[in-house]
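Lab notebook, bench 4. We co-purified these components, and the gel suggests they stay together. Before we commit to crystallization screens, I want a quick structural picture of the whole thing.
Request: model the full complex, all chains together.
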Amino acid sequence: MMNLMKHRKVFIGLAVLLVVFSLAVWYTKGLNYGVDFEGGTNIRFPVERKVTSTEVRTVLEGERFDEMDLKLTSPQPYAYIDSQGNQRHGVLVHTRFLNNQEQKMAVSALEETFGQAGTEAGLDVYGVDPLIGEELLRNALKAVIIACLLILVYIAIRFEFLSGVAGLAALIHDVLLVIGIFALLQKEIDATFIAALLTIIGYSINDTIVIFDRIRENQRFRKKGQSFDEVVNLSILQTMRRSLNTSVTTVLAILVLYLLGSPSIKNFCLAMIIGLMAGTYSSVFVASPLWAVWKNLSEKKRS
Amino acid sequence: MRRDLRWKTWLIFILVFCAFIYAIVPQYSQELRGIFFKGQDPIRKGLDLKGGIEVILAPDYRAEGRALIQVMNDLLKKIEGIGVAGPEAKLLGRADNNRYDGLLFTFRSAEDANRVLRAKVLEKRFNWRSGVESKELLLDVQIDQGNPRALQVYVKEDPANFPKEALYQAKVIISNRVNASGMAETDVRYDEKNGRIQVQLPGIKSQEEADRLIRSTGRLNFRLNERIVMFGSDLKNAVADFDTSQGAPVIHFEFGRVGAEQFADITSENVGKTLAMYLDEEKLMEPVINEPITGGKGRITLGRGTSLEQARNYAILMKSGALPISLRTVQMTQVAPTLGSEMIRQSLVAGIVGIILIILFMLIFYGLPGIMADLALVLYAILVLGTFALFRGVLTLPGVAGLLLSIGMAVDANIIIYERIKDEIRAGKRMRPALQGGFDRAFWTIVDANVTILIVAGVLIMFGTGPVKGFAGTLGIGILISMFSALVITRAFLELLIDRNPDQYLKLFKARGVK
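Here is the predicted assembly.
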């Protein structure tokens, strides 16, 4: 039988390395908060032809906006092919939170230069007051922390406290890794990103529980002299096929959504793909070995 | 066939059949849609899939320019009081509905600014009174990061001081107005915890239309010499008409009991004076009081040049101004209808491709039992749609993602079960006991694993907002039904499959290592 536990230092070490790397990137590069959390207005303005960022910038930095200080960031032109196969263009304009009149001014300035966007063409506006942004971020953090604590309690009741802690450690690994990669790529952090994080938490803990469940069962039939390492090793191997099959199917489904889905759902899918892979790794190679290590320690202390 | 198996199978099929008739057939049948859903879609689509405008309104805590100028003068006196040379003062921020973010004091030196800050003469709470108006402002004083000589005094939202009653009334008024517009599937909600009013107007095409319904949400006020003497909250009605005897349009208005008394007092004391009518800070009319109006009912005669249409607009604005509070937009989402239907097509394609991939995967890895699981998956999808239609849930784009993920979980449960069955076969059991054992041993694994996800979904529903909530809702429903699908439907199908001559199916499970 393959002995995975022999390499547990490598596995846990790798996880620690990834976490440290993520924290470092997070610290140095910072996160790119979206409109949801920082407040601001995003206007997706459809255009007939390809436009450049500078062109759009000139329009919105015109005289009449002098007083307003739009806090315009570099407009991002985008292109996509719609479901009928037509090539479409647009430009994403990000400013501070605009009130009604200001928003109307900005849109009509764009319309004067690039032609009527109109509703049929797909004008898309999303604005959040910075005040609400803070509220959303606070609520999101609260949600993540409460979800983690409840999961810890549930596992502690259904399994044992150490399992809960080991599972939580794996969760922290997954969440930090996703945040780290998003910081590295400077992808936008918005409300759906938080939803992705929470789903990843759910999935990862699901993986972990399936293995812990095996460990619980195998421990019951533990032969004399069989160490915790052996029990864990056996349980991991027994559940390996399921872990891989499930990850592959889920990642496949989300990969499709990532490739075919609309731009607004791409970030969500990216986070999910990273998180699912991290979650599978951490359930198998972090949570279970950690549990064995702690279990061994507490056993030693007792004897 | 075993009797319990027979009724179980029937039950499943009846359930699925009902869900199919209820949620899927009406998509194509106008008649059924009329019977079940009053003509609406069985699965209601969210704004992002349908297009439209959503606005979240909050009480406007910012102060009007005229109020701020008085606050400014008061504060300047206090600054002088501690012996600091008078700073240059102006209004902070951009005028929005004539309201500003606060005040900006620029001192002679950074030292002066610091002294004022330390002396705390600019207190946190500031009570301001003028006429019938009073305001309790929450101020936040800080040094301007770009200029150390300047102090910014921001007016902040004060959650401890939400005008709960007024907000609720405002919600009722807006909801009446939106309902009266006759638009379908509009939604007006009051979030008491955060003091917000959420207005959803699906299908609406332009900002102007939305404006007419919810943006003219000012507070009607009457002013004598630029001072507010009364608010129009108690205005019961205002109707425009054309008075042929005078050759000019008139507006008839009527107050409730409290308003009538107030109005009687004001008009009796000020005959001959101009009583200006404002909506928030916007001047509507400047009628002159000709005689005391005591019964609560009165009329305004407009100038000869005014058109009847103009008069009607004034009447509407007067009525719309009956909001007891000024509101402002704190979140705005506008999605074009075309974009929405584009999203639906895209997510449909993504969903179908995803499901096909999963079906193929199960087929390749588990053969015939895999097909049973696939069939259970299809029934699962119908059941989810049925449940969704039953609860009149609103499907959003993140909701679609939640559904896809729950499909993943449904597959996972099947994989867990099949691997367990294989284990049992490997351990030397025959088909029937292996099936039994596999399901028994997988049961708690699946429950434990799914409960944790349900916990996450629950937390999201409680603390999430908008898109996150939609996601959590479908995820939660999906997970519950996926458990049912794996533990009941798949099981029934497998038992049916092996009912006669079970052991011939042993090889189908391809359990390696069976001797």
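The first strand of chain A starts at residue 32 and ends at 33. Worth comparing against the SEC data before the next meeting. The domain at 5-35+132-302 of chain A is CATH 1.20.1640.10 (Multidrug efflux transporter AcrB transmembrane fold).
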